[in-house]
Amino acid sequence: MSGISGLKFYPDMFDNVEPFTASAMTERMTFSQMCIESASRALKDTDINPASSDVVFVFSTTKGEDLRLWEPSVAVARHFGNNNQPVIVSNACISGVNAQIMASRLLTAGMYKTAVVIGCDVLSKFIVSGFQSLKALSADKCLPFDKNRQGLNLGEAAACMVLSTISGNSESKCWLYEAGSIHNDANHISGPSRTAEGSYRCLLDCVKGIDTTDIAFVSVHGTGTAYNDEMESIALHRAGLDSKPVVALKCYYGHTLGAAGVLETIISMQSVENGEIPTALGYNEQGTTYKCLLPTSNTKVNGNSFIKVLSGFGGCNAAVRWALR
Amino acid sequence: MSKISVEISGKECTVNGEKLNCSETGAEVLMELYRKYVGDYPKFYKMDSLSRLGFIASELVLQKDAELNGTTRFESNENRKIILANNNASLNTDLKYSGTIGKDNYYPSPSLFVYTLPNIITGEIAIRNKYYGESCFLVLENMEQLRNTLQTIELESDALVGWVEYNGDDDYNCTMWIEKH
After folding, report:
1. Are A183 and B152 a contacting pair at CB < 8 A?
2. What does the pLDDT look like over A40-99, one tens digit per residue?
């Protein structure tokens, strides 16, 4: 996709990050509290003024706060003094990648100069009971792509990326948004496509016309459910990406729904910067039709770019390609 | 280029400004429109209210589009995008689902839970029409924000676009159209 490569992601946010854990919290944080915490940390080391009219807040969430999405998102933007209308992507589990694509379009169109992309979903009885009713949950730690996988784990997170149109004379390396794609399976509202139609098309769009040598790995959805992982192995195979290492991160913190796409993109960036991908916890035996290269120890990788791909209910799929240039 | 727009509310339904005959009110309007103008897609009955509203609107838009272009209703258009939006997401269905997970009444329904995502309607329309293009659901302040956003960003292919809001059986509205590029 031409014209949208001028987007910069601020890698500074990895500095001085102090992850907080559940035990450190005296009480559960709300959606808006998590969004504010995450965005504050991401913005801290940038020269972005979030109150500027050139800045738009783009949210990625499925359930927001008390089942409301618009009001708490507006409140978060206003907390930072931003008076623009936020854009909220609520496209099931692909929301986080979709929000990056939407942000890139808003910036490329010149509507804004910076997009604060926040992905967040808070665990609730609503969500847990629903996934339970679908029999999608694993009683044990999830095992993406493994033969013995039993289902997914749920998690919660807020993650934030600050995307900006590039200033022109950037001397240090920065992350560039290079491609993004969304496709529907046109197959089933809650089951993945047997031919991986949408996911395959997204991957294909992300490698169209490029030399794939530079792609260090593909960060997959990897929920640990039988059908999702099988579908993804088919998508990777059809797109000719079987030879790339596969990173499945949900074995660490579960499926964080609306936050997943943002969180997993950020971790993928860190992996490229480190030249190393994390081991697939618990992965033991191939459990998909096509072999996928999951690392069984922290593994060195080469390449300055990666693909992040997700799939969700409603038959939606999304992928983005980022590169450190 | 034909400009097609469908508007549906609990009171009336218009296609390109032309009012369709509707004797029912409230949620029954959608059932009546289904029986009169679709009738051959029993999956409709499984859908939640938001999806029914969006589905009917998409059927009417696409029927009119085929009529004006002299094509068949299911003309292949596999890259067409579906971009829908509203302000309250799937709140109406969310509240119905919440009612099934009460303290003394815990019977979560998987078929209802699936519809507690507003983008499910984009999937329903994609399945019906074999659209493999982008499908996306946005939560925005109002239809004006949707129009402004879509007019500014480059969509690259034509898209079925709509504002689909279902707050209750007596409080819903949908405006859907095709953006051609």
Report:
1. no
2. 999 998 999 999 999 999 999 999 999 999 999 999 999 999 999 999 999 999 999 999
Question: How many Cα atoms sit within 13 Å of A309 on the Cβ side?
Answer: 30
Q: Are strands B159-168 and B135-139 parallel, antiparallel or unpaired?
A: unpaired
Asked whether the beta carbons of residue A184 and residue B97 sit closer than 8 angstroms, the reply is: no
Structure pTM?
Answer: 0.94
B151 vs A contacts (CB less than 8 Å): none
| pLDDT at B103 > cutoff 80 | yes
What DSSP string describes A143-167? -TTBTT---B-B--EEEEEEEEE--
Instruction: Scan residues 244-303 of A and list those with Cβ closer than 8 Å to B.
Output: none
Select from B98, B106, B139 the Cβ nearest to the Cβ of A70: B139
In the predicted model, is pLDDT for residue A4 greater than 80?
Answer: no
As given in the structure block, the two tokens for residue A262 are: 């943002």
Interface predicted TM-score (ipTM) of this complex, two decimals: 0.97
> Residue B43 corresponds to which tokens in the numbers above?
């999956």
**Are B163 and B143 spatial neighbours (Cβ–Cβ below 8 Å)?**
yes
Contact A184 B123 (CB under 8 A): yes
Hey, is the C-beta of B114 within 8 angstroms of any chain A C-beta? yes
A183 within 8 A of A91, measured Cβ to Cβ = no
Q: What b/e sequence results for A90-125 when a residue is b if at least 16 CB atoms lie within 10 Å of its CB, and e otherwise?
A: bbbbbbbbbbbbbbbbbbbeebbbbbbbbbbbbbbe
Token pair of A133 as six digits:
């009713």
Nearest-CA distance from A313 to chain B in Å? 7
CA distance B89 to chain A (A): 7
The answer to whether the Cβ–Cβ distance between B123 and A88 falls below 8 Å is: no
Q: What is the pLDDT of residues B30-76, one digit of tens each?
A: 999 999 999 999 999 999 999 999 999 999 999 999 999 999 999 99
